[in-house]
Amino acid sequence: MTDTADLSDTRYNQLAEQLADAIRRGTLAPGSRLPSVRRSAQTWSVSINTVVAAYRRLEDRGFIEARPQSGFYVRAALPALNHQPHEQPQTPAAEPADEVLDLIDKVFASQIDPTYTNLSLACPQSNDFYPTGKLGRIMSSLLRRQPNLIGQYALPPGSPVLRQQIARRALTLGMILEPADITITHGCMEALQLALRVTTKPGDSVGLETPTYFYLLPMLASLGLKAVEIPTDPQTGLSLDVLEMLLAEKRLNAVIAMPTAQNPLGFTMPLAAKKRLARLMNDHQVPLIEDGLYAEIQFGATLSPAVKSFDRYGWILFCTSFTKTLAPDFRIGWVEGGRFADKLHKLKAVSSMAESALLSQTLAVFLESGGYDHHLRALRKRYASQVEQARALIARHFPQGTRATQPAGGFVIWVDFPPGVDCVTLFHQLLKDKICMTPGQLYSPSGRYSNGLRLSCCYVFDTRYISAMIRIGQRACEMCGLPPGLAETQEQAEESRTS
Amino acid sequence: MTDTADLSDTRYNQLAEQLADAIRRGTLAPGSRLPSVRRSAQTWSVSINTVVAAYRRLEDRGFIEARPQSGFYVRAALPALNHQPHEQPQTPAAEPADEVLDLIDKVFASQIDPTYTNLSLACPQSNDFYPTGKLGRIMSSLLRRQPNLIGQYALPPGSPVLRQQIARRALTLGMILEPADITITHGCMEALQLALRVTTKPGDSVGLETPTYFYLLPMLASLGLKAVEIPTDPQTGLSLDVLEMLLAEKRLNAVIAMPTAQNPLGFTMPLAAKKRLARLMNDHQVPLIEDGLYAEIQFGATLSPAVKSFDRYGWILFCTSFTKTLAPDFRIGWVEGGRFADKLHKLKAVSSMAESALLSQTLAVFLESGGYDHHLRALRKRYASQVEQARALIARHFPQGTRATQPAGGFVIWVDFPPGVDCVTLFHQLLKDKICMTPGQLYSPSGRYSNGLRLSCCYVFDTRYISAMIRIGQRACEMCGLPPGLAETQEQAEESRTS
User: Fold this and answer.
1) What is the CATH number of domain A98-126+374-498?
2) Keywords assigned by UniProt (chains A, B) (predicted)?
């Protein structure tokens, strides 16, 4: 976490932070003029250069704008995205269309190509985001003391010491879990895959958020499952009224959802909604597969508990991984299978057997050593700051009328462009600029969201990334013919919020 | 491999080896008397103690027996198993019976319990079978030089350097493979699972050997696939006549087989049969999933090539892993998907994403360093010797009329008891003795082979294991009322071979 630490230690950066806070709180209102550089230098007893650097940083981050011959002004806030929920659930679509699958391939190819400026892949690919040094030392020490670990068969349901640590950690999200009910999996993705296989059979219907984690769609198709889109509000999540209706009509065999720091919308469901969701699933005895992948990267002061923590009769299966928080390469995830725990242990055994004891124990030793919370706090702060920076760049450079989410956690932003911007076309244009983002159409089996896109803000926002954001804005402005600048006026935003 | 090395360096052991060779070649015929200890000491210019130790070793391994007041005699050879092939393929069985699944659980629970003497789990669980020290040093060095490996996302289809090394190594089994067609998987089991998913859909029928790798049966059931048992000869493998008939009648959507060092029968199909198998699958355009898990642990001087090496139009998918040969804990396997390679890459990505780059590169560096062939030679020699030792113990302690396979590779032996021995009952009796083996019924979806069992001979045959083998023999003798000793007379064996 050296980058954040270095920057925050410099005086100009402290100043920029204080001003950003003032803007966030409204002390410095949108449109108001900042004190002149000279006056600020006097007020805060710093050099003129420090103030200039602080103002430039605020400008880079989109908080303020320079007006020639006039000074620096506070930019208007970016209005939050406020989807019109689709009140009717969609016709089940057994498989995503071929063009969607082709598009997924293209997105994936650009994600893994290091020559692209990557605003698509949800992983920083950078070693200063993770305690790689400490993990490496733990592993080397294990290899010295227990060389036999390599020579032993990795056995299901996975390392007992890691399952113990996971159960201990789960309390921070409100879950009281038994290590015996936890299966160690190959990342969160295998956890989801096994949870689906253990709760459904081919031909079944699975309710999901729309937009949803886009790899879910080909995963469901590969298992012969039908996706049923449930209207999803960008602030409050899954429409529980629609869900209740679908459950009452017995049209769902399982539901898969991300109630905390959702990918791609970033919302966390309100507590009351989480409780109602848990109650609905238990009442109707339909399994909920809760994807908690980003639940430990919440930005709020206290962590919103998992829906699983309100589970009564084991109808909720909780899936997550250390891939986003600790060691992407290890791909160690886990699932607590509720009433399906036994079946899950067995399916893992006949599906891919078990996870490496060496990798599992490395994580367990790290978790036991107590450095995890410290690491998570730094990671949350860093991602919160990067998300804010990206939102500021959107407000400044994307076409008027653009709306963007205000994530409660994670590191992705969902952007809705005004009419006229087709994001698949935009995606292909940006590939020529060696910029990679994820077009909205991938996030729904029915291919909606043609003017939406997801930006992954897990990279350090250096000049290269700032230029890429500006370039996306330019391309989008060209496409819709609107000038860049604040997406909506405050009045429009208010109106859209209340409508 | 210190154990083998130490033993083979001692004089008495060399002498025992030479005598064992002479017995194998027939120079010392079954029933003949060995020279007296005194005379042997003179002949070979060694001490009397050395000769005694060598004879004791041969006795332990079942080559010779002491007759009181008379001397040491060469034991008769154990007749090879000669199944009567089941000429008609079996009715498809969609799922193994519940009692079979329960039994698998019980077997599994005993396999992973270290208080049992384990003749069931096909993994030594001992560090002197693998180059764990060298692998550990490679990994520690990678962690020091590239700490970032931990912090990066493991991406499909897997480490390019490892895929390169795999393609290079595949030549030893006659396969010319493109690294681009190889998917790195989570062990051979995930390779098989993905290969099945990519070539079939729920409700399809999959032809398999009988007996077969027993975890295949719940795996097929979990994927909604029907198992069709194809008669399998313990010396020549899959009945290709039956297979051809089934293919001609379009009754199979895929075939899964282990043509080299098969688990559990140990046979390697003759070369001509392998060629015919490849031709049949290509002619009928039905995918063959070739499980090559033990193909590198063949006992013969030259390696029998994979069926994949005779593939013409990409209808053969080759699956294997480094789990049995190098690093059980890593669970790094691979599949070459033939004409399904692209589909396989994609399914892996939406099923469990990718394998750890750290583990993959550790293997790649080891493979590149050239120590693998040396290691494999030692492993083959060791397993060949242990299998022989187990066969000798079977000949000596199991009931008359018992037959056992003569494996061409791997480290498992299949035993057929005479009528009266029910191996599920025997399994439960042996659990009380804290001995764990695998009853034959698990190896067939229709639950045949009630008098068969599989013994895994991958452990060092110390006193504990020898006692366990003797105990199995005692229990079986009690059950059928037959005395221990050579299973069949030579005449009976000849007769059963020609019948």
Assistant:
1) 3.90.1150.10
2) Aminotransferase, DNA-binding, Pyridoxal phosphate, Transcription, Transcription regulation, Transferase
